[in-house]
Amino acid sequence: MKRKHNHSDETGGSRKRPKDAAQAQAHTPTTINHPVLCCYFQHVKTLRQYINKRLPNSSKKRLRKYTHASQSRDATDPEVAKLLDSILVGANHDADFGDERMTKLESQSYSQEAPGTMLGSGAQLAPAFQEDIVDRVIFVLFKRNPNLPRPAHLLCHGFSRRSPAVDEVAVAVSRHNIPGLVSVCSNPYVDMLKSGPWARLLVLLGRGGDALVTDLFLECGLFAIEGERCFQICGVPLGDCKVLREERKKVDPLSSLAKAQNTGRTSAKEQQASPTDIRFVRSRMFYAKPALKANGSVRFGMRHMHVLNRFPDKHDRQSTVHIMLYIFPRQFGLHNVFTSKVDYRESAFMSKDYTIRETEIKRALLQRSNKISRDSKGCVKLPKRLRGDPERVIQRLRALHSKCAYHYLIKHYCPIS
What we know:
Blueprint: H1 21-26, E1 43-46, H2 47-54, H3 60-70, H4 78-86, E2 87-91, H5 104-113, H6 129-144, E3 159-161, H7 164-169, E4 181-183, H8 188-194, H9 197-205, H10 209-219, E5 221-226, E6 229-234, H11 253-261, H12 282-285, H13 307-310, H14 317-327, H15 358-366, H16 389-403, H17 406-413
Antiparallel strand pairs: 1-2, 2-5, 3-4, 5-6
């Protein structure tokens, strides 16, 4: 009679076989629902999920070494493990999330102009090769955009094409050796990606890791998470990215019922939009580039083209009425986010740019089908609901804007240490 093995340990619990890397990956969430990044990228994943998707299953030894060194528990390199879980990768690739997009022609061009590199040779990667990867990415970005003085990429900030005028301003001793380019100022994102756990991660990836990391820096956006903060460290700046258009919109039964009830009172051109259809363009509000003065310094406050700056006379009532055309466009029958549809031939965003709408106002004044009317003196008449207190509020707003010192407010609440 055979002896039965006791599968329970001293604590009374059953002994289970540990899961391998493939089983552990199957139980982890495949996508990250970030409220902002999901509006700009089709796929948002952690760096760990991105690499697990890209590593070939044929190299079991490399997979075992990478998993043992980077797993969150008992990791041999805790900094690499923390990096894999604290970096979000956003991409607009196909469903496979990560085809190698760098062409062989671009790789050979860099290898010929920078013969000191060993990238793409199939040799084992060393931490020093991480610097060559970042330099190659910057070289390819400038090569892909020959007509631009500098590509719209975070890694290209501080670099410029070589010319006699640039060489005089450039730093005499530069740590970057990129053919045809010169560093005019430091770039913290380049320094971050060239050293630290990024270089040790390249060693863990082994053969072919240079192509994986190169495609990651070229085609994806990288965002670091520190507590409640999330900031971009690589890729096209979020302010230059376009918001993804929804192919299928979810139908709200309450909003559809309200639209069906209002079909007799509202024309087909002015359909009432539901609250979910009205979106704020975050890229313009939070991630836009600052306005600059003639001497190159930052202009604080509203831009010179803003309607409050284009009508500085706060005692002129007709100017106040004109500003109210911008603030309450629906009351005057102008294009608005509540009842108007956006023509995507005019704007690629979810809403139009209403910074300057003088042409639209002049066209509406010539037409009689809108709600804009003039009095006997030729001035625009206000609707009844905008007379009285609303007009006084706008006059008060103009007075406060003319007295507000935006530069000193920013220095007080956001001081530079």
